[in-house]
Each structure stands twice: as C-alpha cells, then as structure tokens.
Write a structure and sequence with these properties.
It contains no helices and 11 strands. The chain is mainly β. It has one domain: Sandwich (Immunoglobulin-like), CATH 2.60.40. The protein has a 6-stranded antiparallel β-sheet, with no helix packed on it. It has a 5-stranded antiparallel β-sheet with strand order 1-11-10-6-7, with no helix packed on it. A hairpin with a 2-residue loop joins strand 6 and strand 7.
Length: 139
C-alpha cells in the first residue's frame, strides 16, 4: 500500500506542506506516518494517515485517516470517495468548541481518493489522501 498525500485546494485554502515520519517497530518493520497541513485565513485542516503497526496473518491491514479542523464558528467534517459520502468512522468534538476531529478507519483494499471537506458559515476547504497499490517502499 502506497500512501500519497496530494494537495487539493478549496475555498481560501493554501497547502503548507507534507511531512513523513518513519519508525521501526519491535520486529524492525518500518512504518511511516504522513501528515499534510492545509491552512486558510479562517482556520486550518490537518490531514494524516497512520499505517498499521501490526498485521495478523490472513487479516487485511487497516489504515486510519484523520482529519482535524480548527477555527470557528463550528465546522462540519465530511469524507467522500468517488463522489459518495463515506459514513463509517467516528467524529469527536474536542473540549474547544471550535475544534473538530474526525477519524475514519478503512481496509487497505479500498483504494481510491478520500477527500476530507471542512466547512462552516465562513469557509470551506478540502484535502485529499490517495490510497494505491501495495506497500513496497516508502516514498
């Protein structure tokens, strides 16, 4: 599974950068965390992926997609894939009433472009994560 963050502009959105952190687990298996930060004049979106830390034989690995938005007034966070709203996942509103965190877990066999869209009365912004292929090396 190759995880690649792509910049996707929305209203008032400017990409600030894409970051990768690579780690090895107890069995020296490499894992990477990819994070993209997108900002606007009225708030920001942080979009990240966390590949699996362990894969059981015969089981499909899972990836967790996380979209975090900050700013006010209160935001609505939605995930779409192939123009269809993805309803799995959980949404948690943190203690700060202007911060929303939405986490979506999916099976790696579900490839495609996943778009996180954050909107409120003041602005709308989106960011895309593309899931493709089989993980052969980190790019």
């Amino acid at each position: 599974m190759v995880v690649r963050l792509k910049r996707n502009t929305g209203t008032d959105t400017a990409a600030e950068g894409i970051y990768r952190c690579s780690i090895n687990d107890a069995e020296s298996t490499p894992h990477s965390i990819y994070v993209g930060l997108y900002t606007s004049g009225r708030g920001q979106i942080m979009l990240s992926t966390l590949p699996p830390h362990s894969i059981t034989s015969g089981a499909s690995p899972q990836f967790t997609l996380t979209c975090i938005s900050t700013g006010g007034p209160a935001t609505t966070v939605t995930w779409t894939r192939d123009s269809t709203t993805v309803t799995q996942g959980t949404q948690t509103v943190l203690n700060d009433p202007v911060t929303a965190k939405y986490t979506h877990t999916l099976n790696v066999t579900t490839a495609g472009d996943y778009i996180c869209t954050v909107s409120n009365i003041a602005f709308s912004a989106s960011a895309t994560i593309s899931l493709e292929g089989i993980l052969l090396l980190c790019v």
